[in-house]
Amino acid sequence: MKNTQRKLSIMLSIAIGITAYTPAISMASTESISALPRNIPIHTSTSVPIAQNDFTGAFATVLEVLENQIVVSIKYNSSEQSQTYVLNVSKETYFVDNQTGVASDLKDLQKDDEIYVYHSLASTRSLPPQTAALVILTNVKENESIATLIDVEQVTEKENTVSASSKDGEYIIHFTSETNVTPYLTKNILRYSDIYKGNRVLAWFDIIMPSLPAQATALKAVVLPTVEENITFAELIREIIVQLDGEKPIIMDTHYAVPYMIKAKELGLISDAELSNKEHWNQNEKAYEMETLFAIIKKNDYSFDFDKLNNLIIHTVLADDKLLPDARTIVRNGSLMVPLRAVAEALGFEVTWDASKSTAEMTDGTIKSSVQLGYNHYYSESVSALGLIEPQQLGSSPLLVDGRTYVPAELFNLLFSNPDSVKISDNILNISK
Fold first, then answer.
1. 271 Cβ partners below 8 Å, 6+ apart?
2. Would you tell me how many other CB atoms lie within 10 Å of the CB of residue 417?
3. In 98-209, which ranges are E strands?
4. Which of 144, 291, 341, 385 has most Cβ atoms within 10 angstroms of its Cβ?
5. Which distant-in-sequence residues (6+ apart) come within 8 Å of 384 by Cβ?
6. Which are the contacts of 279, defined by CB distance < 8 A and separation ≥ 6?
């Protein structure tokens, strides 16, 4: 297992890395130092309370390039032996040339290429382990600085400079009129003032100020597409109001979320503009938007179970510990929904679709079941024995979204007659037999 999850502040990391080569640097010093290649050993103990990123970074050597995977040899720091990993590549993996900041591509990679990869902290227990690749920096040169990936937690603007604090508390990056800011892959024109809270940004800099947190002025930056959560604004508000004030009856001929939105406005959770902007209701929330709501809940000291809501916010889906990089979840009527075919086939089921009946049928040779769009009716039946488990309702009917059939994740508890088949921890959904 890797032992680096980048929980230390960068100041401590810099001090550790430099001490091996130069005299100790005073923590009170304001002298700038050159940015170091990001292969400094990271330790896991710190007295500084910081938020944890959902990713880590490391140098890697390409061993094999497959269609949607890259087999690599990763070395997290100089004291560790190299480890083989399989990087799963999806539409949310961004390839960037470390020298130019221009988008690159999986097709640009060849065996023995040196890369720097930012990948999810979640990995499978298979050999070799698999993990989701978030950002892959190509054209990496020895002893040259690597672009730093940050999630912007807070932004302040002063004297033609935007200062962005990173989520994990390690950095304050300054963006000025001299910083070349570009968006990933698109031709939109950005300025330094277009850095906002919630952005995920790659920043290049040569000098780090030895402060806590470390500070640097970016020479260039690439703003990556903002990753949306798997829950819409309407579903988020519904879940909050159900906890605070109970379920609401549907108002006929209106959006199902109307009574929840009205109550949220009464409680001061949303504005008049958010109440009237029904187009936004069906859009997926971004992390920083959710945090704004949570801050209001905490400020008003409402009794709220954040863990219950957190179990709906899924970043990674596993099936029998195997990563399913394209199996994105959704939330409907407070129920966590998964793409049926992707999950069922990963668990050994054969799935067939009957378009005439809008029905998906599945079997693994031992048990069988079927689901029909629009019908909240779920069951499990033995292939060889008589009888079936009494049909149940599971919170939401099967849905067709972007050509994929979605079912409640808890269907698999029913199929396997095991209440623990579906497990959620740290925004990771793991469904097993």
1. 265
2. 10
3. 114-123, 130-138, 148-158, 161-166, 171-176, 180-183, 200-204, 207-208
4. 341
5. 366
6. none
Per-residue tokens: 363: 């079997």
Number of H helices, E strands in the chain: 9, 29
pTM (two decimals): 0.60
CA 9/CA 214 separation, integer angstroms: 8
Residue 261 makes CB contacts below 8 A (sequence gap 6+) with 234, 237, 270, 274, 275, 281
CA distance 376 to 378: 7
CB atoms within 10 A of CB 120: 21
Q: Which residues contact 345 (CB under 8 A, 6 or more apart)?
A: 351
Domain ranges in the chain?
10-138, 148-224, 229-310, 316-431
Residue-wise pLDDT tens for the chain (433 aa)?
Answer: 433 333 333 333 333 333 333 222 233 333 444 443 333 222 222 233 344 567 899 999 999 999 889 999 998 877 778 999 999 898 889 999 999 999 999 999 999 999 999 998 877 778 898 888 999 999 998 888 899 999 998 899 998 899 999 988 899 999 999 999 999 987 777 889 889 888 899 999 998 988 889 999 999 999 998 767 889 999 999 999 999 999 999 888 889 999 999 999 999 898 888 899 998 899 888 776 787 788 788 888 899 998 889 889 888 899 998 888 778 899 999 999 999 999 999 999 999 999 999 999 999 999 999 999 999 999 999 888 776 667 899 989 999 998 999 999 999 999 999 999 999 988 889 999 8
Q: What's the fold here for domain 316-431?
A: Copper Amine Oxidase; Chain A, domain 1 (3.30.457)
Query: At residue 4, what is the residue type?
Result: T
Give, in order, the Cα–Cα distances in Å from 46 to each of 39, 50, 293.
Answer: 19, 9, 30
State how far the Cα of 349 lies from the Cα of 364, in Å rounded to an integer: 4
Distances (CA, A) of 31 to 16, 27, 209, 210, 365: 17, 10, 7, 7, 68
Peptide bond into 391 cis (omega under 30): no
Tokens coding 430: 């793991």
On whether the 10-138 domain is CATH 2.40.50.140, my answer is yes
Contact 108, 95 (CB under 8 A): yes
Identical fold for domains 10-138 and 148-224, yes or no, is yes
Q: Which amino acid is at 205?
A: F
